[in-house]
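Quick start: what a row looks like.
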Amino acid sequence: MPAKIERIFAGVSMNEVIGAIFSAVLGGTVTGGILLVFLNNYLNNRDRERHDLANRILALNKDIETLEKERIEKLETRFNSESARFESHIKNDLSQRILAVLDSVSGRLEKMENKSDRFLEEIAMLRKTDEAQRARLSELSADLKAHINRNAA
């Protein structure tokens, strides 16, 4: 075996061999370090994006809950005021006036029902958006795991 090595390095000084080995090791280390820095920055950016998306989803969920509570409170307030007004009219008005108030209340209830239907549609749209964002987060997570597994292998 030493004879083979001597033939491979015939005519090359030991300083040149050591210099070549040193250059190869140093070059590979620097290149590897640069790649690790770029990979670390990329992964940090992905983590930051995932964190931002998760925060946006949480904020949207809180907004949905707040909107639901506010709309329900408004509907309850409106219903209570209309109910009180209706009871007042029943006590004080004649039958024709009562029928007119019933018609008015019926129309308002229909409007409130239509508004509540629109509100429910808005909530459904917000939930679809939330589901789409959650699906995107899952995709990003799967991509990140696949990327990490590829780089780990």
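That is the whole record. Residues 2-152 form one domain. The chain has three helices and no strands.
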